[in-house]
Amino acid sequence: MKKLLTIVFFMLLGGTLTFGQTTHVVTGYNYPVEDPVLSGLKSIRGMGYVANPFNNGTSLMAFTNYNTQGVVHVFASAGNDSLKLVWSSPTPANGGASTPRYVMFGDLDNDGLIEVIYQSNNNGIFIYEWDGVSGSYNFGTQPSQTIDITYFPGVSGNCEYMEIGDFDGDGVKELSVAYNSAPNDNDRFYVVSATGDWATDNPGFSGFNVEFQGIRTQLAAYGLSSGTPYAMIAANFDGTGNPEILLHNWNLLNVTPMRVPAADTYVLADTNTGKANYFAGGAFDDVALFGGMAYDIDGDGRDEVYLPVYPATGSTNAGKAVGIHYATGQTTDRIDSTNIFMIDFSEIMKTALFGYGYGDIDGNGKKNLYFSSSYPYNILTAEFQGGDKTNPANWLTSVLYKGDSTVYTSITTKDSLGNIDTIYSRQTAFVSKFHGRFTDFDNDGLEDIIMPYQALSDSITIRNLVFNSGTQQYDTTLTMVQNPKRYSIRVLERNSGTGIEVKELTLITPSDYILEQNYPNPFNPETNIRFTLPLNNKISLKIYDILGKEVISLINNQEFNKGAYEINWNGTNSFGAKVASGTYIAELKFGNFAKTIKMSLMK
């Protein structure tokens, strides 16, 4: 188990924070630098979350990993402040290029089985469906289906944001995606639905129906031809009928609404009004780099969309989030400045905002919008005080969590004839696509914000400068040491008590399951096999011959408690007959993972 013995915490008292409850950080997962797969968790671009998909109280999280051509890891909650790795996607044949950037859970084929969905460079959009077996967490060893070049003319590149929902009210879910491909003709906005039904590892006779595609080079009238597609966000702006879909691209933070009046019918804004799109960045080429979210902050039955600003150089929009709303009576076939307001953090910070969420982490009954950034602004909050949401006076902004001030990229010590100065350079990693939407991943009744980090450093550069009186220069020694605080996942949690509650976030991976070498080895006629389980789990322990044929099942999918065990094998097969001399394989299988050892029987 990976456990961190130091805890980062803070008190929500006075100063920049405005509420009096106690909040603490459950810190955090130190990714293993020696693991070629999990070390990719040092730079998590995207995460997905689903609460209780199996109706057993267990929540799932999925995290992106750029390593090994781009994969996804799924974790399940395993008790208070614990996660266990339950599934990893296979390595794609041709991926990479810093993908996947977004991962989500959904049920696109409408069969009631949860799916893991993400985009992969040169492949398209992978869909892995759960097998429906209670406790299996099995999403397969190959995609159940792939939205590939059969449906999209270009599948290279990336996408930062996707959504699933029944946008057109026909009882069938659709997937919306802004796909950044190449050349520009292949930059497109899509709405896709499934035809037929797939299963784990099996596409069956299923396929896809592209209900809408907006081609970048053909959408100049909507401001969409001059910049990369970035997001399609469904929001019921007028509170009636089907939701609208807001299209966003990197062109002066351009936005344009699309109406969905009927099944498979998508209508772009009315160009005759002169208000088909709006450049929310003004003169600055800003973008909502990670997309945005829809939320009804004031409960008036009409959604708003919130876009955190990634500012262009010199932009006056740094430290702001754009709010998009429609007042009573406003038509959604157009957009202008009356539909725009700002959530302004610029008096606190003037830098980029990345992720987004909402909740009420202080429990005072007032809703909060959350946005993420780099240290010392890892999580910012804007608490709505009521009234007119477009009035800046009705928002109370503050830093919810600064980040850890003791995570460094370099430490420089300068010794000037006994006068020692030390300079610390702090880590610039930022909280990326976090999840916080009234979330309680561990079912302890306390709201959580799950924070993945991107751009963490493995190591710290240590520079020692010592003045040499002979040469009248500084002698420099340069070393690299492992960063002891490789926090790639943190959980921010409210504590309903009056003090700081210190906890550890425990992350359980296959390396925590131990299968020891049998003893004696070589053996005749019997041997003992020891194994250790980090948590209660169903396991199997089987013996195979060198050709992979099962010899005997010593344990067959039985529930074992956490702890160490020893099993004796007497050298017989499942029929009780003595086996021949040779090499045998013992396999300990737990969930979707397994460990093996080789054993030698010598007579």
Compute the average pLDDT. 91
Distance from N terminus to C terminus (CA atoms, Å) equals: 39 Å
CATH superfamily assignment of the domain at 44-218?
Integrin alpha, N-terminal
CATH architecture of the domain at 44-218: 7 Propeller
> What is the tally of helical segments?
0
Assembly context of the chains: single chain
Helix content: under 10%
Ranges with pLDDT <50 over ≥5 residues?
1-27, 498-502
Describe this structure in words.
By secondary structure, the protein is an all-beta fold. Among the domains are: 44-218, 7 Propeller (Methylamine Dehydrogenase, Chain H); 513-601, Immunoglobulin-like (Sandwich). 0% of the residues lie in helices and 44% in strands. The protein has no helices and 43 strands. Strands 1, 2, 30, 31, 32 and 35 form a six-stranded antiparallel sheet that branches. Residues 1-27 and 498-502 have low confidence and may be disordered.
